[in-house]
């Protein structure tokens, strides 16, 4: 038997890609980060799990963990320091510690809904 040490990376779900595209179209200055995010999440059947300030991070000022779609995929949405641009990454594809926190928050949210 041959074993493989190749890491398998999941592709982001359609809902995560849609979230990213809709956030790119949002007016973050006029709406504000959370209002823009809530508006987009309404379109992709999602909800905010948490929204934290990132003190001391040189690139981003905020991160929100969101749950989207029928499969409850988790994404991290980062707001840059200027407050004008977002970066989205799927928690399953992320090696950031906060991605694991986001997945735990999803599990708690799903348990509360059951």
Can you walk through the features of this model?
- With 114 residues, the chain is of the alpha+beta class.
- The chain is built from four helices and four strands.
- A four-stranded antiparallel β-sheet has the order 1-2-3-4, with helices on both faces.
- A hairpin with a 4-residue loop joins β2 (60-68) and β3.
DSSP summary, beta strand count: 4
Structural class: alpha+beta
Which residues sit in consecutive blocks of at least 5 with pLDDT less than 50? 1-9
Helix content: 25-40%
Strand order, sheet with most strands: 1-2-3-4
Quaternary structure type: single chain
Number of helices: 4
Residue fraction in strands: 25-35%
Secondary-structure element series: HHHEEEEH
Taken from the alpha-carbon principal axes, the silhouette is globular
> Radius of gyration, Cα only, in angstroms?
15 Å
CA(first)-CA(last) distance: 42 Å
Mean pLDDT: 90
Major sheet size, sense and barrel closure: 4 strands, antiparallel
Question: What is this structure's SSE topology?
Answer:
Elements: H1 14-25, H2 28-31, H3 33-43, E1 46-53, E2 60-68, E3 73-80, E4 86-90, H4 97-113
Antiparallel strand pairs: 1-2, 2-3, 3-4
Compose a concise summary of this entry.
The protein is α+β, with helices and mostly antiparallel strands. The protein has helices at residues 14-25, 28-31, 33-43, 97-113; strands at 46-53, 60-68, 73-80, 86-90.
């Amino acid at each position: 038997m041959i074993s493989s040490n190749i890491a398998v990376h999941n592709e982001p779900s359609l809902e995560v890609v849609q979230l990213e595209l809709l956030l790119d179209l949002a007016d973050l200055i006029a709406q504000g980060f959370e209002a823009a995010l809530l508006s987009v999440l309404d379109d992709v059947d999602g909800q905010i799990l948490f929204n934290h300030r990132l003190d001391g991070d040189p690139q981003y000022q905020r991160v929100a963990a969101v749950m989207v779609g029928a499969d409850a995929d988790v994404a991290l949405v980062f707001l840059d320091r200027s407050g004008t641009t977002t970066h989205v990454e799927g928690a399953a594809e992320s090696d950031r510690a906060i991605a694991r926190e986001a997945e735990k928050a999803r599990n708690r949210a799903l348990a509360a809904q059951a």
